[in-house]
Amino acid sequence: MSSVIVIGGGAAGMMAAISVAGCGGRVNLLEKNEKLGKKLFITGKGRCNLTNAADIEDFFQAVVSNPKFLYSSFYSFTNDQTIAFFEGLGLKTKVERGGRVFPQSDHSSDVISALSRELSRRKVDVSLHTEVKAIIIEEGRAAGVSLSSGKKLYADAVIVATGGISYPSTGSTGDGYRFAELCGHRITELSPSLVPMEVKEWYAKELMGLSLRNIQIRITDGKKKLYEEFGEMLFTHYGVTGPVILSASSVVGKRLKQKELTLHIDLKPALSEEQLDKRVLREFETNHNRQFKNAVDSLFPAKLKPVMVELSGIPEEKKVHEITKEERSRFVHLIKDFTMTLTNLRGYNEAIITKGGVSVREIDPGTMESRKISGLYFAGEVLDLDAVTGGYNLQIAWSTGYLAGMSAAEKKQS
Questions:
Q1: Nearest to residue 73, comparing CAs of 374, 392, 395, 388?
Q2: In angstroms, rounded to a whole number, what is the distance separating the alpha carbons of residues 147 and 299?
C-alpha cells in the first residue's frame, strides 16, 4: 500500500487520513494549527451539524455549485454511512428539524474527539504546528511536500484538504488555492457564502436581536424571483442572518455583489391575505375603542410592533374604529410582504464557507485526483463545491475526503 500526505486537519482532511489508513496505507496528516478541527469546533454554533438525514438523492438539490460532480463521492460515502461511522466511534447522534443531524451531546468537541481517537487507533501520524510551503512535483507527479521549516517529506500521493478562506481565524487562509495554482489548476471566483447580509433600512437596527420563526422569505431582483424559503431568521445591527438568510446568500450572493435586491418577509405564511384580514378584523373589533398602537399586541413580537405600526402609515393614536378598509388592507399586505433592501454580503470572517475554489473540471470525480498532476488529490471546501445550510457542506467534506483517501491509498509511485 502507498504512503500518503494529507494537508489540513479539518473535516475533509481527518476523514481522508482515516480512509487511507483504513485501506492499509501509511499516512501523515499535517496541520498548521495547534490542534485538529479548529473550524469544525465552531460549526453549527458549536453543536456541529454533521450531515442531513434526507434521502441521498435530495442532497443534489441542496448543492448550489457543481452538484453532478459529487455523484461518485456522495454514493461512495453516503449520509447514512456518515451517521453509522460516527455511531461506530461511540458518538450518539440525533435528528432535528429539517433533517439536521447533530451529536446527541450538542458538543462539536465530541465529534473532534471521536475523529482524533480513530486517527490514533489507525496509527495515523499527526503533525501539528506543521505548515506546508509547497507541493513537490517530480516528473508530473506529486512526490511530497516542502515545509516552511525547510524540511521535505516524500510520499506516493498528496491530498490537499486545506479548506477555503472563510473564518480566517481558524487558519483558513487560502493555502490550498496557492498550492493548486502552482500545480497549474484554475481557481474559480471566490466569495463568502452562507453569510449574513446587510440591509439599507433604518429599522434593521431597531429590530436587532429579534428572531422570527416560521416565516417565509422571498428575494427578488425587480420582478424576478431568485430565492424562496420557509424557516427562521434573525435581525442584526447591520441587517439579517439566520438559516434561511444564510442559505439564500449562497444562491443570490453573486448578483448581490452587482446590485441591490429586495427581501420580502411573509410574517404569517400559514394564512392567506384573506384569512389574515379576518384575523386583523377580529383584533380590531375586540379593541375598537383603543388606539391603533395598542390594538396589535397579539400580532407581533414586542420589538416588531412599533416598526409595523410606523410602516403601516396609520397614525398610531388613531382609534381602531376609525381605521378605513383601505388602511386595514394596506396593513394586512405589509404583514404578508414586509420588505427590506439587501445591499451587500458580510465578509469572510462571518462566512460559514467559501464559494468557488479549485475548478472541478480539472478533477476526476470518481477518484478526486487531479487531471493535471498524478498522485495529487483534493477534498472538501478547497474545491468549487458548496451547498445550502443543513449539514450538506459537511457531508461534502466527509464524502470527498473518504473518496480521496480510498483512491490515494492505492497510488504507488512507479
A1: 395
A2: 61
| d(C-alpha 166, C-alpha 157), whole Å | 27
3-state secondary structure of 171: coil
CA-CA distances (angstroms) from residue 401 to 104, 269, 409? 24, 40, 12
CB 369 within 8 A of CB 184: no
User: 206, 215, 202: which is closest to 243 by C-alpha?
Assistant: 215
Q: What angle do CA 103, 29, 17 make, to 5 degrees?
A: 55
Distance CA(322)–CA(228), nearest Å, equals: 37
Q: By three-state DSSP, how is residue 69 classified?
A: helix
pTM of the predicted model, to two decimals? 0.93
Q: Give the list of residues 6+ apart from residue 99 with CB closer than 8 angstroms, or none.
A: 52, 53, 54, 390, 391
Q: Which residue in 201, 207, 265 sits closest to 232, CA to CA?
A: 265
φ, ψ for residue 293, nearest 5 deg:
-65, -20
What is the spatial distance between Cα 386 and Cα 103, in angstroms, rounded to a whole number?
A: 22
Interior CA angle at 77 toward 74 and 83, to 5°? 110
Sheet containing strand 157-160, strands side by side: 125-127, 26-30, 3-7, 157-160, 376-378
347-365 residues labelled b (16+ CB within 10 A) or e (exposed): ebebbbbbbbbbbbebbeb
Parts of the chain with a pLDDT under 70: 413-414
- The tens digit of pLDDT for each residue in 30-88 reads 999 999 999 999 988 899 999 999 999 999 999 999 999 999 999 999 999 999 999 99
In whole angstroms, give the CA distance from residue 82 to residue 260. 39
